């Protein structure tokens, strides 16, 4: 049986200016949100959409956290993307405050469940916290 790594550290993210917001109802909303996000990233380089270091990884990170929230959390799920001074902040909130993010460790990739590890690998920071609004899982990406 595969072990799990410790849950992501419970802490607040850095301050960020919110740019984009989605509320996916279920997994069928994800292709539309990915398309919209890719369109917004194509506008990069403007003041409202600064450049992303790796757009494909960025979209993958958003998709992984959204799909985890929809599969393992409780609705409603809220997705917010913002900018810090020098990075991007991605936050996904769901209602499963009793289930902190727990990346898979030493699992056969064929069994799935590797998304949090992939996201954390490219993240500058990651964490989570609970509030009255729910469980907020966040990553800072370059």
Automatic annotation (TrEMBL):
Record GO terms (molecular function): protein serine/threonine kinase activity
Name of protein: Histidine kinase-like ATPase domain-containing protein
Classification via InterPro entries: Anti-sigma-factor_SerPK, HATPase_C_sf, HATPase_dom
Domain Histidine kinase/HSP90-like ATPase: 23-121
Keywords carried by this UniProt record: Kinase, Serine/threonine-protein kinase, Transferase
Superkingdom of origin organism: Bacteria
Species per Swiss-Prot/TrEMBL record: Klenkia soli
Pfam family, one: HATPase_c_2
SUPFAM superfamilies: ATPase domain of HSP90 chaperone/DNA topoisomerase II/histidine kinase
Gene3D superfamilies according to UniProt: Histidine kinase-like ATPase, C-terminal domain (3.30.565.10)
